[in-house]
Write the structure tokens for this entry.
Amino acid sequence: MDGLLWIPVLALAVAAPLLYPRWRLRRALARPLPAAAEAVLQRNIPVYASMGAALQQQLRQLVKQFLHQKKFVGCEGLELDDEMRYTIAGQACLLLLNRPSKVYRALHTILVYPSAFLVPRQQMEAGGVVTAHKQTLLGESWDDGRVVLSWADVKRGYRDWTDGHNVVLHEFAHQLDSESGSTNGAPYLGSQDSYRSWSAVLSRDYDNLRYDAYYGRQDSVLDHYGATSPAEFFAVATETFFEKPWQMAGRHAALYDEFMKYYRVDPRAWLDQPAAPPLPEPGPVPLMAAGPGAARRSYAIASW
Ligand SMILES: [Zn+2]
């Protein structure tokens, strides 16, 4: 009989490593969000106040899970505080509302720099010569589970929620994209029909944006950085979807529909419809070019 007592003990020993994290998560989710954290969401996510009680509740739960599971690391002497953690988690979790997905299952660490940061890069030149240089970035997403952010640019992102530029939304869109197995502008969509429709609409609008970028058209709703690659197009369109939903729905109706199906929210409900923009001046449109020392908006690393 004594031998049989070992069976439940052994079962418990095997199950404990699986059950303990779930128990800790349930306990973290059961605790209310501190009032100061709620104030950060109100202050630094300008659409939070107009999301409605049900979505606010969802976002609070997602934020609690995000902060429970992910590690934040301050870089170059940056001391992270709750304002930074709740601001970044709150914006990142906007992309997960109404979707029964895990909270960025591959992500484990968010590294935060005080401002734009330098990273070493290698480039293959003509003739196969590899040259090393440094690049200034505002954000970076790696599919090994890291996101890197410039806090100065996170602040810029939420202080103007209508300019279509938001480094947190951008980098976490790359994270969702990479969950499908490759960072290529197509996140996990489910059915074949969804992939067909996504591919048809995004390919067309991506080609149109490349044309706009090539000719320097300045009336694009989507930032020309999205013309860099299909992955950047998805990340830029995500920023636009959440920050300029009315303009995107007006100029890219099919694309907006695809993003509504994927993100399962309609951000037009959270933002007032802007007044119609003034008509552009007649005459040739000057070409736009980044200055030689301009920081890249962000960067997605497919693998390493
Ligand atoms: Zn990017």
